Give the backbone structure.
Amino acid sequence: MKIAILNTGNTNNRKGAFNNVHERIKHLQEVPHIEVDVYLIRHYDSWVFRLLRDKKDVKEDITIVDGVKYHNFWVTHKMKDYIITNRLKIKDISCKSQLYQFVDIFKDYDILLVHALPDMYLAYLVKQKYGIPFVTTWHGSDINVWPFVNKEGFKTTKLILENADFNFFVSKKLMIVSDQITTKGSKDYLYSGPADNYLNPPQNNKEFLRNKLNISSNYLVGFIGNMVAIKNVMILPDIFRMIQNKLHDVSFIVVGDGRLLDNLKKKIQEYNIQNVKYTGKLLPGEIPDVMNSLDLLLLPSLNEGMPRVTLEALSYGVPVVGSDVGGIPESIGVENCFKLDNDFVNNISSRAVEILENQETPKELSKEFSWDFTLKKEMDVYKRILKIL
């Protein structure tokens, strides 16, 4: 079986869905009797963009990350297309007209596995010309948000869902939301496992790691994620303040960066919240030590597919409390999730304090969140499509 995996992103800015896909690629490449090639659609800023952003892109044909060889497809990132697509939301895919040049590259593959709208559309074009089947995986905002704020995006998403040979969704909830776009097409959910860094027991104990972070409080509560609106980070100070008022001997750690980080720091300072540590962006290999130092993880997101950070926390025995959105309840349990209403801050804070005071430990992850289960489930689909017994 000759497989091409396609994604869209930047190997120099690995976050969220990209890391999840990267882990799946590593595990899929270990399956015997299949050949896997990986392609990545990357944006190269036009000269106007480079001038405004003072950014120097380095175009390389191949990038190797953790042993995975990415063949880069460079498309020009034009200011006009960016405004029309991302700001005005009139266009569905900013680089759509540039994708046709890559179609012939895939004529000899048995199946294409795709993870973002540009490469999904490219796979659709390949299928139209060569009849090669493709399987999508939808990760979150591509179903939860984009189709409902962009009319062209809705049409293209519907086109992909109905023409894909199979559609995977990273959570059951995401699959249910997709029915608002179309009930046609083959669909199922497909969980993933924690990153490889979390598959082995922690090397250092919590006390050692706390000392390394210069944290001496009895409790440590953390947030790990991007500092962007959809992660609902600006509600963290309200949650921190309520937890601090009830526990007193507690510290907080914030891992990640983004455009809201300065606003978050300012609000935390205004609230006079003590003992808050900011790490900025960390590499994937640096996060396990921080995770293992926590007593509790907060996840107040406005929207999610299946946040892998919940799986990583639970695999280390760290309880998680969060919002009742996307796949969060499917991993951490409905008892730890709360509606984003006027009582949200009080509810999530009270549950956090209850867990900490009672020293509650999370339930063990279901076997569906293991890589063995995931690989068998997806390989069964590929074999069925290709009529391989």
